[in-house]
Design goal:
about 425 residues, zinc-finger, Retinoid X Receptor, DNA-binding, alpha+beta, receptor, two-stranded antiparallel sheet, nucleus, 7 strands, C.elegans_NHRs, five-stranded mixed beta sheet, Erythroid Transcription Factor GATA-1, Chain A
Amino acid sequence: MPDHVEVMEIDELPSTSLTKVREFFAQDDCDICNSPAATLHYGAMTCGSCKVFFLRTSMAKRVFLCDKGGRCEYPRDRCRACRFQKCLKMGMNPEAVGRRKQLIASAKENEEDQLPDLSIVPYFTEKSAARSRSYHLEAKKFDNPTKIVSHLLGIERFCDNEDTGKYSSYENFDFTLDVDLSEALQFPGKICRRTPIGFSSGLQICAKDPSSLFRQLYCRLTLHMLDWVVSLDEIWMMSEKDRVRLISRQAANCVVLTMAYNTYRFDASGVLFCHGFQLEKTLGDSPEFVFITADLKRAIIANDFSTVMVDFAHSQLLSVFREIHLSPEEYVLLKCISFFTTVGHLSDEATEIVRNARRRYEYLLAKHIEEERPNFSPTARAIRVMKILGLLPKIMKMAIFDDQYLAKMAALDLQGMRGRITRDFHLSD
């Protein structure tokens, strides 16, 4: 335990077994056949068998027919047509097959050429662009990604809201969980005040009542995520149903990546939360506590959940950030790519928008690296792109664990976490 601390015990936080949660990070079930030990392949968490099936079917452009007219339930019904359709439904992308190998091969063939375009088709066809006249970052503007990246960095600064000044106390911090996600997308500020996010600042006490601490921190991070996501033009090209479903499923990716990147940015020992708080490993045999340093410079949320999150973030994400010296520009593009990755159960129109957006931001990442590192060979640039994209399954895994923990808190109303917004994010199908 750190010296000179005030200790506030939080009895209601759910206790977890470190062995069990570490086992969670060791494997996932396949989205297609429910087999264990799945990893990210072509946009979904799949086992090796389903990966190979999708790879061969996509490369051979085979067409299977279902004897029951597409009414099978794979894997109970061993139907190849319905198996492939389930692959597509869960977000697997045929256009991603062989993309990375082609990228390296093309770069090696001609070291003097620029980094090959990651896209296979134009990012937004005339049909998809016509869905929203508000869409203003069209493919014709891709020749100057600098302005787009600068725009994304500006959005991140707006979400942080650090320019409004730093405060030592938010005793009148207004917040609520009783806002539907659809309403929050129209009026994000209903969730809470846009205080400075406080990743780098000293501790900012949110209220006199420590029992509401977790809810307040959750609300501020949720507002940060919503302010960011509503700035993406692509989500407004979708129907409201698809928009809500996409955001509810992908929000955790954005939140954990934001926390991890700012932890790297400010070289914190735990994982930065907001308002000066951070997750840290459980200290010795301590139960679940919040430690607040006497000089109000640091606060620690310590429990089994935070221990596993810190271990995973530092070993799997921050180690790569440090190795490649991830830049702010690469971070905001990775955040966009992560948001538009592996989402099933959307309409065909929304699925097309998500896939196009994923290719678009991958392209912008490649172009940014090409412009910012002119001394790199095309092969070196391609490898850097792949290292950054290789972070996606790790972000997803950390996000799934975070989402499951918060779902438990919301379902059991631990720390008062039951509300309409937590229901929509963590408990809805």
